[in-house]
Amino acid sequence: MSWNAQGRFIASPSAVALGGDSSGIRVTDAIYRLIRDEQYGSAIRILSRQLSLTPGNRALLSLLGYSSYQTKNFEMAADIYKELSQRFPDNVTYQVNLAQSLLNLGALEEADAFCSALSKASGPNAYRAAMLMALLKYQAGDWEGLEYCLSSNELDDHLAATLRGGRFWKEKMFDLALEAFQRIMKTNGFEPQMAYNIALCHYEQRQFVSCLQYIGEIAKMAMEKHPDMNNGSSGKPGKENSKIWFGKTSSFMKKSALVEAFNLRRAIDFLVGKVDEAAGKLELIPLRLPDTFDKVTIHNQALFQSEHNAGATLDKLRSLVENPPCLPEVLVNLAEKQNMLEKYLLNDEIAFLEALIISKNSPDVALERLQALAEQHLATLRRIKKSLQVLMAQANIHVEQRNYKMVEGLLQHSSDICELDSTWKMNMAHVLFLQQKYADAIWYYEQSLEGNEDCLHTVKSVVLANLCTAYVHEHQNAKAKAILDRLKEEEVTQIKNAEAFERTDCATPFHSCIVKLAIGTLYCAEKSADFGLQMVVEALNPLSDKLRLDTWYYAKRCLLDLSNRLASRSCFVADDTIVTVLKFLQDVDAHARRYTSGRVFSAVKVGYDCHTDLILSVAADRCYLRRRPTTRDSV
Fold it and tell me: Looking at the domain that runs over 1-155, which CATH code has it been given?
């Protein structure tokens, strides 16, 4: 049942402060713009990335908690507000938000404890605490406690009447519930969510004509206020604007009760035997992004697909069970489809679902079954972990022998049990890359990036370097540039935030440096020395931060290779490139004096002390091109 009894959620997010520079201001504006447009998913991605750069930032946590709540990720919202409540115990708003998140999560005991502790709250928080306590009693079925809350607190008459009507509905006294909701409608005028409650009461009494009348009024009002929500409307959003369109209309969709009304109409068709017609009405539900479908819609989709696509039905029902709180109807339908379970699922999967189904009525038995399954799968995971260690040891021997085809075969042979392991995917990408199977390597490298697109600095630099190199080989330069731009943006933000919060323990970010060195080396090897050397020079800029023994080693390889080829007149570069390289060598020498190892920078001396002898002298030091220290990872 759905009605507007939850109360408005007030997160009171603080302003985001990211250092006061123009970059920080742009990020702040972007976050608030996304929240204003109700594009909470995008806001969460940016906030998570910023939090990884400045962990524990209060403003970021507050906004992330608010956005998580709006996307119905109540578990994340509860975790965030719990942290904020512990760090700032004097802020009652955080405690109220935590209680509300726990209430929506179904953690009634925890929510009850927090609501009781908030009994002395004042101002707006006092009303919210009283409202939450009343909702808590309603959800727990504590009718005496509910009446006490409604009589002892100055709650809104609308909320009190709605909760009393909801109580009648829960007790299956549909006549009394209908009267209560109709009185509210008469007092406050037409409200879509209250109209839905009335329609639902008529549905339970099998008064389908009256039910359809209210459903029609709900749909009519929604289409009048938002005609572009009609599938046939010329205002239907294009693919490129769909996310913005959905974001701007999601709030209206919740208030309109339109989705609930469509599902109720389909339920009527289902009851009277018009299953095909009900399934066809699936297309009439206003356009939404798949990840915004509510649980009732997903459940009904599963039922209508059961005759034609049993596998999809089971997937949907199983996903609903595995993501509590679960609709009671889901458990009933799963229990009734035992034959389907036995046909399409493994024994372990059936045992897991059966344990979840009986968990409400027989929690002790469910716990025993789940514990047995956990022990069984834990033993399997241990065996897989040991097998993976043995597999990687075998593969490493073949790698040292440069027998990459054998390594690929070994990894492919274990794909059925290891394909979800991040180490396995990364090594598979590496071995494909070494065999110059760049298209396949890209696929595996991109798998390693999943979930980290907005925080690339958490990905291993060798993965990013090889991925960008593979992009260049496959003529997907735009993708490589996008990664470089994102890395640069993250590194600038990380440095600015460290300065703003006066943190001196932050390590210098090297990801973009390593990626540029890899791309520069590739272009130098492909006889595009001008661009390759430009990338190498950019990679070490600024030298004060990026010049290290390892980075110089790879930069020097390109310079020495160029010198060797220039000496043999096998390539030519522009005069501007020569000038840039010589200036770069001078700057390197100036910064290199802080190092005690003179040999690492010995080739630089030749560069600026005797420019006319540069080609011949540096070519004599080409042994550096072949030497590969075992302590360094190859890019």
Answer: 1.25.40.10
